[in-house]
Amino acid sequence: MLFHRRDFVARTLAELTEALQRAVFTHRYARLPGLLQRIDPRAKLVTLMVFLIGAGMAHRMETLLGLYVFSLFLAIVSRVPLGFFLKRVWFFIPIFAGIIAIPAIFNVITPGRPVLTIFRFSDPISLLGLVHIPQEITITQQGLKGASLFVIRVADSVSLAVLLVLTTEWMRLLSALSAFRFPRMGILMLAMTYRYIFLFLRVAEEMFLARRSRTVGHTPAREKRRWIAGGTAFLLNRSYNLGNEVYLAMLSRGWNGKARILEELRLGWLDALWVAFSILILIAIVFSEKGLI
Amino acid sequence: MTEEPVFELKNVGYSYMDGLTALDDISLQVMPGQRVVILGVNGSGKSTLIKIMDGLYFPTTGECKAFGVPLTERQFRDEEFAFSFRRKVGLLFQDPDVQLFSPTVWNEVAFAPLQLGLPEDEIKQRVENALETMGIWHLRERAPYQLSEGEKKKVALASLLSLDPQIWLMDEPTANLDPRTQGWVIDFLLSLADRGKTLVLAIHELEVAQIVAQKIYVLGEDHRMAAQGGPDEILGDDDLLTQANLMHIHRHFHGGDAHRHPHVHKHDHHG
């Protein structure tokens, strides 16, 4: 769909819808004959938790980088194209981790050995005696290290979670959550969100298209803002009704909060091996952190 | 021995949370194997009525019984009852988009029999049969969002066919479809009737009512029951249909001559 470059909201909506169609609703990778696809979703859930604990406990860059390389290796042996996988992971990291990590690289937050001076005041600044800003704003070595550790830890966690979702069919994943007694309400919300986000985006996109078809010439910014505010209220109301209808449609066909799949989930030797391997990795991380290996 | 109605509604009323009335004093009966049409314009309360019959909404006044049992929230908390009811009664939603929530067509068609705990082999058999009967076998790996409106309607019907309910509740099954798909859906409905299924259709198209109905209930714009009777009796009553806003009069052309007479709008223009 073609949009004028300046029509930011309409373009974002169209791209979001397309991205969702491609990413969320695709389960082509879940059916490929790769390593993770062969593993029972319950075993995958357990190992994801083990790896996440590992990533949370690790404070050495080598360990966290090792875990990241391991996630790339898992993507390769599970036949997930590396380009697609990297894009999916690194799209979110600047948004979620970057915002938190960037301030931490400066000496205002993390004092330490200066690497690069960004700005110099004539005198140090003190605000009400509570906040002290040094005379020089610098990027510190300690700040860089802390921020990199944080970013790579997030990258590890996101990579592993993305791999789980990419290599597991949605209903099998919900079924695994059911098996672990994940609250039914939570599963219901996940199941509905899956379908509902897409419907919601489509409604929003159509609203913008309908407006464009009735707009000639330039609309003042104030008028645009007013329209967006009105549109948001309409969407909120519409989304509530849509959500309700989707829920009723699920209820009508026997949904009772428990996700069911056709093949019974069966744990095999590969699953046991996979869980044992992940626990070994966790033990290795603990020993490595204590400097024992 | 007289047959027991599958649905029996007595003085049913329904109001939304904001106090808006959707239904007022509705009484009706549906007998096993009967083809019942609920006729009404948009906003008359047809969809609400059909959702009450599917145990999704519960009357604010009056009583709705299915198979002799009052449909209440408490009744549906009994999982055994809920399972048995959902196996026997299927509902086709007006907007197929809300009904199709699974990743692929195959998953969608398998959803209801899976949820209702049918054996694995039977589920596979039913899904394959439903996809073939609907002529959508080639779409089985597609995601519902990739389908046309007509294809979505067929998938929604297939997702009920795989459940093979005894009672089919349908909210506007022929609305927004091209003429060929609409004709196909009507044929499909009649084939269900041939198999002894009970059909309850909420529609506003008089032509469809003429073809399908054995009994018609007309909902008025005041959300009350305006009339009930056989198709000839109801569809022959122009005053009733005009009053219920299902038929209207305005100027139009016949071979160049403008004139007025009561008619309904559909793709072929004259009703």
Q: Which keywords apply here?
A:
heterodimer; A: 293 residues; mainly alpha; two-stranded antiparallel sheet; two-stranded antiparallel ribbon; flat; B: 271 residues; alpha/beta; six-stranded mixed beta sheet; four-stranded antiparallel beta sheet; 11 helices; 37% helix; disordered C terminus
Structure characterization notes:
The complex is a heterodimer of chains A (293) and B (271). Chain A is mainly α and 293 residues long. In chain A, 67% of the residues lie in helices and 6% in strands. Chain A contains ten helices and four strands, in the order αααααββββααααα. Chain A has helices spanning 8-23, 35-38, 41-57, 61-77, 82-104, 141-166, 170-179, 184-213, 221-252, 269-289; strands at residues 114-120, 125-127, 131-133, 136-140. In chain A, the strands form two sheets. Chain A has a two-stranded antiparallel ribbon. In chain A, strands 2-3 form a two-stranded antiparallel sheet. The radius of gyration of chain A is 24 Å and the shape is flat. The model of chain A has no long low-confidence stretch (mean pLDDT 82). Chain B is of the alpha/beta class and 271 residues long. Chain B is built from eleven helices and 14 strands. In chain B, strands 6-7-8-3-9-10 form a six-stranded mixed beta sheet, with helices on both faces. A four-stranded antiparallel beta sheet of chain B has the order 2-1-4-5, with helices on one face. In chain B, α5 (105-115) packs parallel to α7 and α6 runs antiparallel to α7 (149-161). The radius of gyration of chain B is 19 Å and the shape is globular. Chain B starts with 6 loop residues before the first strand and ends in an 8-residue tail after the last strand. The model of chain B is unreliable at 266-271 (pLDDT under 50). The A-B interface holds A 21, 25, 27, 169-171, 191-192, 194-196, 198-199, 242, 245-246, 248-256, 260-264 and B 51, 54, 56, 79, 82-83, 86-87, 90-91, 93, 95, 97-104, 107, 110-112, 114-117, 120, 123-124, 143, 145, 159, 163.
